[in-house]
């Protein structure tokens, strides 16, 4: 047999855990989060693959149970980032002879406290839209690298968007326009050069900067000459506002709202009737990083 190298990891994917803190949090009588957690371990289990020797395997069932146990140990409300770091480090400190690295990916389901008669309800929640996403990588030295993000942040504006002056050839049929709808389901992922004071607060503020830059001021808005330019401005605004953020990746599908026209029956609906189409959609993505 020629020389070989086997790279391996194992873990448990998509463990759903809800954590309820029954004590008062931020003036509210309780606080609920739902996380969907995936764990992957780098560990010294080569003989399991090559010899069938399972003696060093931390069973994926044990990994699943640890997700719940660590959530229980977190007696105070905490951000998904802080939970991810705690969980990722747990595997290295609990199995120091076996586990040399861990990767935790999770997203938080957007349960929001409901408002009834203009007041926040004590124990009622409804599901919102976008998700808070987290990735934590714990290295063999015990250091944790954290990236945060948001996904499914669906944004739409009805005007102040166009696309013109693009390259044309024999297959180009798209017309120039300075008036179209612009819609996207934004996915953003950012990394930190230094740990922020509060991951949860930073998440809320980054989201706010992304949304504000996409739309512009409430009445006049801001003109978008392309998804590309708007994406770049959103990324720039985040780096300008948060010195602790080192790099941001944005993925912004262009979800087309195609004006409906029925020329054969002489009906033109284009100004106010559209077909929303998410397939196919444009894919526009970029990462903006600080130069060191
Ligand atoms: O903002 C846009 N960017 C593109 O690259 C593109 N391509 C396209 O067909 N429409 C658009 N819109």
Automatic annotation (TrEMBL):
Catalytic activity: urate + O2 + H2O = 5-hydroxyisourate + H2O2
EC number, as in UniProt: 1.7.3.3
Pathway: Purine metabolism; urate degradation; (S)-allantoin from urate: step 1/3
Keywords per UniProt: Oxidoreductase, Peroxisome, Purine metabolism
UniProt xrefs under InterPro entries: Uricase, Uricase_CS
Pfam families: Uricase (PF01014)
Top-rank taxon: Eukaryota
Cellular compartments annotated: Peroxisome
Broad enzyme group: oxidoreductase
Function, as annotated: Catalyzes the oxidation of uric acid to 5-hydroxyisourate, which is further processed to form (S)-allantoin.
Family (UniProt): Belongs to the uricase family.
Record-given protein name: Uricase
Organism: Sphagnum troendelagicum
